[in-house]
Design goal:
Blueprint (H helix, E strand, L loop, with lengths): L8 E3 L2 E3 L4 E3 L9 E3 L3 H18 L4 H17 L1 H12 L3 H24 L6 E3 L13 E7 L3 E4 L13 H9 L3 E4 L5 H18 L6 E4 L4 H9 L5 E5 L2 H13 L6 E4 L6 E3 L1 H20 L11 E5 L2 H15 L4 E2 L3 H15 L5 E4 L7 E2 L2 E6 H6 L11 E7 L2 H10 L3 E7 L5 H12 L2 E6 L38 E7 L11
The structure holds NADP nicotinamide-adenine-dinucleotide phosphate.
Keywords: Oxidoreductase
GO molecular function, one term: oxidoreductase activity, acting on the aldehyde or oxo group of donors, NAD or NADP as acceptor
Protein name: NADP-dependent aldehyde dehydrogenase
Length: 503
């Protein structure tokens, strides 16, 4: 089924066009024109979201769960059209779009179940102690309340799961917060059809129209106006460090600063401990190459850095990785800009004297071929830029002479989404020495796996110290992510008739 976008914004239940348009830049097929967002539309969407909050923020959990499940149903009802436009716009393969759609609807349904269970409210009660000496204690109750309209920015590399009705939107709607999405210019048609699904769910469930709006971009001023709008109470952002930092700074500089939950890039270091390198260096090199090239390396959890022992055993890891990467075919990148940024990132490595190319390729147009570089830990620690994400299938091997050197390297790392240990039982002592360090550096620690692939679950943490995220106490994946859009309120000596739902 082919989907032809109309190119309009969805503002509080109405599809609105604009005179000025921007063309989409699909990886294949026809380009379409999309209405450019304006600050006037931002204002309308935020006013409508605030108006909706007065009912939606006080709706029952059952009503919200039914609404969120209906969004999932409406997305499934448009499955073929979503995959059609999604594959054309992003260049991602059909199986990936289908899988990501399942993840997106599964995530919505998980949040519906989660709020029905009610434990996310974290209700607490300290009963009154009228006879306590020297002073009586009042009756105290606490519960988590939704905070108001939320701005959501999706990422180019997850056009469904981290976009229009992705994790941030699901968590905010589950919490009771209306959402204004700034559409991603890399997949505006995919954003439009998903917004259609949300729109249909709003009508079916008789929800207030302002509970969801989608404003297409085409002008950076739109996103900037959105995060600065006085009615917006928090921002969920997935994207680049540069974009995230710019918007975070705007949030902090507002007369009323608001939380900016930015999930940004990461190089996700993988430590290959000595015994693991000895016993399965070749297999680990091959496995790393596979993880590094998955989705053209366009994952925030891409394991861009492998920390590997010096010597023949480490050499086997590097040789196996290089051989596997050499055979990997060129893959289409999400946008022309991302493809250019990948080439620029490679050029940054080529300019470094302390870095040797193991596999150097020339990528053309929107295609990416893998690249592999090698350095030592002293050079890595001296050159901060080597630790910056290159979005794409580029790997850096850092050779170390001892576990102490691995510890120093770990101490020098910036905040990460994930850190992986490849280890055997005989590496346990070395791993124990690394654990206290890496726990301070990353949101998720893995053993004997690869970090690409983030389970949507109660225990998941997808976040980490800056620059992996702008708020290391939070996660953008999994049920805990709902806490970003809630705040605790204490009710003292409150009669039952005045207490909110949840007690
Ligand atoms: P991006 O270029 O930062 O774009 C994200 C969104 O922010 C877009 O809507 C973009 O608008 C907007 N934006 C960016 N800079 C802005 C600015 N200065 N002012 C106003 N709006 C701005 O990110 P991306 O290319 O989509 O995503 C790739 C990056 O995301 C990679 O670094 C990847 O590692 C990271 N990522 C992180 C996670 C995670 O969970 N941590 C997940 C996936 C991806 P336009 O539409 O106008 O471009």
């Amino acid at each position: 089924m082919s989907f032809t976008p109309h190119g309009k914004h969805l503002i509080a239940g109405t599809w609105v066009g604009a005179e000025q348009t921007f063309p989409s830049e699909p990886a294949s097929g026809t380009s379409h024109d999309f209405s450019v967002g304006t600050t006037a539309l931002v204002d309308q969407a935020c006013e409508a979201a605030e108006a909706a909050f007065w009912s939606y923020g006080y709706s029952t959990r059952e009503a919200r769960a039914a609404f969120i499940n209906t969004i999932a149903d409406e997305i499934e009802a448009r499955a073929e059209a979503i995959t059609d436009i999604g594959t054309r716009e992003t260049g991602l393969p059909e199986a990936r779009l289908n899988g990501e759609r399942g993840r997106t609807t599964g995530q919505l349904r998980l949040f519906a179940d989660h709020i029905l269970k009610g434990d996310y409210l974290d209700t607490r009660h300290d009963p009154a102690l009228p006879d306590r000496q020297p002073l009586p204690r009042p009756d105290l109750r606490m519960v988590q309340r939704p905070i108001g309209p939320i701005a959501v920015f999706g990422a180019s590399n997850f056009p469904l799961a981290f976009s229009t009705a992705g994790g941030d939107t699901a968590a905010a709607l589950a919490a009771g917060c209306p959402v204004v999405v700034k559409g991603h210019s890399a997949h505006p048609g995919t954003g439009e059809i998903v917004a259609e699904a949300v729109h249909a769910a709003i009508e079916k469930c008789d929800m207030p129209k302002g509970v969801f709006s989608l404003i297409q971009g085409g002008d950076r001023a739109v996103g900037q106006a959105l995060v600065q709008h006085p009615l917006i109470k928090a921002v969920g952002f997935t994207g680049s460090l540069g974009g995230g930092r710019a918007l975070f700074d705007l949030c902090a500089a507002r007369p009323e600063p608001i939380p900016f939950f930015g999930e940004l890039g990461s190089v996700n270091p993988m430590f290959v401990l000595p015994e693991a390198c000895k016993s399965r260096g070749t297999a680990l090199g091959e496995g790393w190459a596979e993880s590094l090239t998955m989705g053209a390396g366009q994952f925030c959890t891409n394991p861009g850095i492998a920390v590997v022992p010096e010597g023949a055993e480490g050499d086997r890891f590097v040789e196996a990785a290089a051989a596997a990467l050499k055979d990997a075919p060129a893959q289409v990148m999400l946008t022309d800009g991302i493809a250019q940024a990948y080439r620029d990132g490679k050029a940054r490595f080529d300019r470094r004297n302390a870095v040797q190319a193991v596999l150097s390729t020339e990528s053309e147009g929107r295609n990416a071929l893998p690249n592999l570089y090698e350095t030592d830990s002293a050079a890595y620690l001296q050159d901060q830029e080597l630790g910056e994400e290159v979005f794409g299938p580029l790997g850096l091997v850092v050779r170390t002479s001892s576990v102490e050197e691995m510890q120093s390297l770990a101490k020098g790392l910036e905040g990460q989404l994930t850190i992986t240990l490849q280890m055997e039982d005989a590496d346990t002592e070395a791993a124990q020495r690394l654990m206290p360090i890496i726990e301070r550096k990353a949101g998720r620690l893995l053993v004997n796996g690869f970090p690409t692939g983030v389970e949507v679950a109660d225990s998941m943490v997808h976040g980490g110290p800056y620059p992996a995220s702008t708020n290391f106490g939070a996660t953008s994946v999994g049920t805990l992510s709902i806490r970003r859009f809630l705040r605790p309120v204490c009710y003292q000596n409150m009669p039952a008739a005045l207490l909110p739902e949840g007690f």
